[in-house]
Amino acid sequence: MATAQEPERVSAADFIRGFASWRLRSARRPVVVTHHGKDAHVLISHDDYRRLRKPASGEAVDALQASLANLVEAIRDAVLLFDRDRRIVALNPAARDLVAGDDHLLGRQLVDIFPGFGASLVASHVARLIECRERFAGEVPGLLHPRQWLRVDLVPVPAGGAMILRDTSATFEGAAEGDARAATIAAIEAQGMIGHARLSVREAIEDANSALISMVGVDALAIRRVRFSALLSIATRRCFAEALETVFRTGEPARVDAELISREGEAVPVTLSIAERRGAYASDGAVVVAVPRSPRAG
Asked: What is the C-alpha to C-alpha distance for residues 15 and 31, in angstroms, rounded to an integer?
């Protein structure tokens, strides 16, 4: 008896006489029609045939092109296609959003869309792309708006070229802020009298500058992993601990007067400024800045 995994077999003569019955059976499982005892033909349902049928090469290319078009429509990068005359022939929704345009963008020149195009190096790279199919990738400022940075990729296509754009202004702003912080720290170090330390969430000192190390009179290795409150006089430890807890709880900076105790036991009056180091998901600890003050200011 045939199983669900096996086709049913029927001779050509019996198949002709009982075609209606065999047609219904083929909807459930394949029917093999034999001729002179040898398998000759297979009758299957139309749904099975469509699943098994391989598309013709032309259909496969059309399907691929449709898939690529849908992909370009869906990606978050702005994509513009332009011809050899630098006219826009197609663009995806992200490109319309980037340039705040509409369907009237089609047919317009790149220089009409991007105010900074003519004075930018992108114009020469577009020319090399069209003439030599030379690709380009780089960060370009002011192409669309002043002080805006765009990541520009130029790729050759049969129509002319494709321009892929991504706004990277935030990355450059972050780099500029990092440079400003580095310059601030360098200025503090040059001043020579302002100590600072980086603390973990458990108050352990991860790093300290030379001014702070000089105040407590120890070497750089000895101060690492020590709780910052251990450097303070007993009378000011509680105030510091409460200020640090407030910083972690509220995220707002705090300031407190305290006394650093040197290795020789001398009290060094300081004003401590505390700010949280906030990571992407949680607190990374705090930064403490120590500025010496006159004993009378306490």
From this structure: 10
Position 84 scores a pLDDT of: 92
Strand ranges across the sheet with 31-35: 8-11, 31-35, 38-43
Neighbours of 125 (CB within 10 A): 20
Cβ atoms of 190 and 110 within 8 Å: the answer is no
Report H helices in the chain: 12-17, 19-25, 46-52, 57-74, 93-99, 110-113, 121-132, 169-191, 210-216, 220-223, 234-250
State the Cα–Cα distance between residues 156 and 136, nearest whole angstrom: 10
CA 267 to chain CA centroid, nearest Å? 49
The CA-CA-CA angle for residues 236, 238, 244, to 5°, reads: 105
**Mean per-residue pLDDT over the chain, rounded:** 84
Say which residues have a Cβ less than 8 Å from residue 169's Cβ, sequence separation at least 6.
147, 148, 149
Residue, of 175 and 297, whose pLDDT is higher: 175
